Every structure is written in structure tokens, then in C-alpha cells.
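Study the following:
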Amino acid sequence: MRTSAKLAAGAVTAGLGVTMVAGTGTALADGPSPADTAAAAKVAASPAARERLATFFVHLDQHQRGDLTDQAVSKAAKAAKAPALDGAVRPVYTLNPAFVQGRDASVAAFAYLAVGAHSATGQHATMWLVKQGTGWKVMNVISGTDEAAYPARAGGGTVFTEPQINAWYRLKDGRVTGLNSTATTSVGKRGVAVAAYRNLVRARYADKLPGSSYQRSGRLGGYTPRTGVGTGSGGGGTTLLLPALGACGALAATAGIVAARRGRVPR
């Protein structure tokens, strides 16, 4: 699902918030209503959104050729891309900082809506949508399909990401199981109970929350999980940037992963 070079169109701003709703520790923060999802789907299918997708796909070609990606895009080049959406608009949930802190909070919080797309020349991308006021807008377009494909594998549960390590999980019947290799390394092939998962993420991130010496020092460290089962300890790799989880929530952490793993191209 993930290409070797991930590209994002436009910066993800860390100031965008996510909804965090206190719960029992096994539930998830409230996501968008059916009406919200329908409204976001309309935006995703709009001519403006399709033009943005077409421009992104042209820029992706430019990047792969080694050209500058701020070149003007002709109408003919955009038309040749003929972008189309793939599947439904789906909610993306991400690890909740309040859960990491040990509060009686949901495991994950709603971050944004996502839908996959493809071009006539075989490229794939994912469009992110966020609520602005009473409506929805396209926040970002990135190459690859993870953010659309993994949420489609909910299987009666809810899919969420731990973006600091690019792990995707399913939460179902009180257990957290891995959907990709990083997540399976984190929680094992059979997964773990929610309480055990809380212990894992507390060990990884509790000292990097707001007010910590880690945050005050302004450091960005690396984190590569070995097996977290039974120990909750992490390795010392430096592949991924690990931003501090804060009140602006998991979307801010996601922004750090976008910056670390994906080169950017203009909108």
C-alpha cells in the first residue's frame, strides 16, 4: 500500500485539533456523523477537489523525473490524469494523548476523513478532509493509500493509527491487533488487551507529553519498536520523527510523520 517515496501536497498544520471524548478506555472518541461524512464526500467529489488531485498527480510525475514541482500545470496535463475516487470516505482515528497519559479516555481520537483516488496513468493518492466551521475542506493530498485502505479493514471494529511509528491497528472486543508489520511487531501476532496497549504507549510516550523535559528541550527523537509485548520498551532507531503529543492532539503527531516520511510537493 505504501510507496517508497511518499509525497504530501501542502503542509499539515499542527494547530488543527481533534475531538477527544472521555470514555471507558475501550471506546473511541466520537467521529463524524453520517451527515458530516456525506458532506465531506460531496467536497471530495467536487470539481475543485478533482482538479487538486489532477495537479497533484502531475506534480508527482515531475518529482519522479527530478523536475521542480512548482511548475505551472497545463489544463491538458491535468485532463490527462482524469482522477477518480476509490471507495467511500472513511474516518481516520489516531492515538489519543489523554489515553497515553493514563486518564479514563478513549484509546483513539478522530483526526480526519480520508478517501483514496487514482489517476488514469496508474498513480494512487489519498485525500484528507477536515471540518472547517460548518463545512468540510480538503486539507491534504498524499501519495499512497494507507489512510484510506486500512480504515476499510475495520471488520466490525475500529481502525486507528499510532502515527509516531506508522502502525495501524484494529480495536475490537477489547483487544488491539496489528494490521501492518510495524503494528504486529508492537503488539504481537495475537494483539493485546486495551490495558496492555496503554502500558506500551505510556512507556513509549509518557515522558514526551506537554510539560515534559523532552518537550521543553525541543528535541525530536527516533523510535523504532521492537516487540512491545510484555515489556513496553522501545528501541533506539532514528527512522521516524517523534513529536511530542499535545493538546492539539494526534493530528499534530501525524503532521510530524508526514514531514519525516514524505517529501512535499506544492498543491
In short: Confidence is low (pLDDT under 50) at residues 10-28, 220-267. The longest helix spans residues 47-65. Residues 19 and 110 are 6 Å apart (CA to CA). The chain has nine helices and twelve strands.
